[in-house]
């Protein structure tokens, strides 16, 4: 059974390998008006291997030093599934072949060797499957494919076992994509594609779970989980975005550059995305890294990114909003229903930097305040490194707990959605710029 399947599987490879040899009739053959080597090639292309073997052997008898004759004897043996004989003839042809022909002969030898090995794996895989050793069978079928990547049915069989019997859809997907890489624009490629589409919901769920876990870890701990996600679904955008964020947080420009290249390959490296990377402002101060970003997004976009990532420029945006009466600071504690028993909301009249990651807020008129508080503080210092990632809820930009033990603090921003978004972006970029200092 395995031999029959192997014959069916390797036909396309035999025809392809036959076309690699440039057949030029010998002088004697030209004089006689026939060339058994060319005849053997034609017969192999038609999958008439018995007749091809006879023609190729005739060519050997005519000229034992003709490497082409031995090559096609080997090709015919390969089609007849006599892999030992095929490898022996390939070895003879290799000794006789000129340098320009050696790659084609070496391909024949490798194909014979891999198919012989694959046959052994398949026999063992069939036996394991019959005994109910599903994991072993899947590994052996995969091994039969991996020996030469010329028997896709075995890869598809292994993938089916991984997906259905072993509940390992990611392993199935890994193998199916390997078939697609090895055999583009082919029927096996299409078969693999159909199976991948069927598995896609499971693969995306695996990728989402692994990325969610990785996002809470440091680079070294997260990378194995990200690799698992990539095996499952390499097209999942959040996978590559999370990898870039973790690379940025690691402080390694080399890791970050590699991650950004992966974003660019998937058209995800826009400057809004890049501006959200932790510490991007500090990276952009490094000339080599800034040049790299220019190579990725263009120099004009790189300059815009440097401005977007600069905490100083973002502070200036908030200061301008404050001076125009569009910025308020809210603090609250003692939650009660949807509000807070103790709270204060005051106008912010100015925002200025103190160092790289702190700001001084100048406090103005009271908008609202609980009866147990007095509006006596004129200035508040805000350390961006101690704030939670900004969350926008309509006009409120929440910064989590902070500011002298308050349960919540954040900014209320005007009534215009565009201004609210601008403030949100400014705060987010300030926080990202202050997370690390590579």
TrEMBL record:
PROSITE patterns: TPR (PS50005)
TPR repeat positions: 67-100
Keywords: Signal, TPR repeat
Record has Amino-acid biosynthesis as a keyword: no
Record flagged with keyword Signal: yes
Signal peptide annotation: 1-31
The protein, known as: Uncharacterized protein
């Amino acid at each position: 059974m395995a031999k029959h399947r192997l014959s069916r599987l390797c036909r396309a490879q035999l025809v392809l390998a036959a076309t690699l040899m440039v057949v030029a009739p010998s002088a004697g053959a030209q004089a006689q008006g026939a060339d058994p080597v060319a005849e053997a090639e034609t017969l192999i292309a038609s999958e008439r291997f018995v007749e091809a073997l006879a023609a190729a052997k005739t060519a050997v008898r005519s000229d034992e030093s003709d490497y082409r004759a031995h090559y096609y004897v080997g090709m015919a043996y390969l089609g007849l599934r006599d892999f030992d004989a095929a490898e022996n003839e390939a070895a003879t042809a290799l000794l006789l072949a000129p340098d320009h022909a050696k790659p084609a002969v070496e391909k024949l030898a490798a194909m014979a060797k891999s198919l012989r090995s694959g046959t052994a794996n398949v026999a063992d895989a069939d036996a394991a499957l019959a005994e109910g050793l599903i994991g072993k069978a899947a590994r052996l079928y995969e091994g039969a494919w991996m020996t030469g990547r010329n028997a896709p049915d075995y890869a598809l069989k292994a993938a089916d076992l991984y997906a259905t019997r072993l509940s390992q859809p990611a392993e199935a997907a890994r193998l199916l994509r390997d078939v697609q890489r090895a055999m583009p624009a082919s029927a096996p490629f299409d078969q693999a594609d159909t199976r991948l589409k069927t598995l896609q919901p499971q693969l995306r769920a695996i990728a989402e779970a692994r990325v969610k876990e990785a996002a809470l870890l440091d680079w070294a701990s997260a990378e194995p989980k990200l690799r698992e996600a990539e095996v499952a679904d390499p097209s999942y955008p959040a996978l590559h975005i999370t990898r870039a964020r973790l690379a940025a947080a690691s402080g390694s420009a080399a890791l970050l550059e590699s991650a950004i290249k992966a974003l660019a390959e998937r058209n995800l490296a826009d400057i809004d995305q890049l501006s959200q990377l932790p510490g991007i402002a500090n990276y952009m101060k490094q000339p080599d890294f800034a040049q790299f970003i220019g190579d990725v997004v263009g120099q004009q976009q790189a300059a815009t990114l440097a401005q977007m990532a600069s905490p100083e420029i973002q502070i200036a945006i908030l200061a301008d909003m404050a001076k125009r009466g569009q910025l308020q600071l809210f603090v609250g504690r003692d939650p009660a229903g949807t509000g807070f028993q103790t709270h204060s909301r005051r106008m912010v009249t100015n925002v200025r930097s103190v160092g790289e990651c702190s700001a001084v807020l100048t406090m103005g008129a009271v908008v609202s305040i609980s009866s147990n508080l007095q509006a006596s503080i004129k200035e508040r210092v805000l350390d961006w490194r101690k704030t939670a990632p900004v969350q926008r809820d309509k006009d409120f930009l929440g910064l989590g707990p902070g500011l002298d033990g308050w349960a919540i603090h954040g900014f209320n921003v005007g009534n215009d959605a565009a201004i609210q978004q601008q403030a949100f972006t400014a705060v987010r970029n300030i926080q990202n710029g202050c997370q690390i200092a590579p």
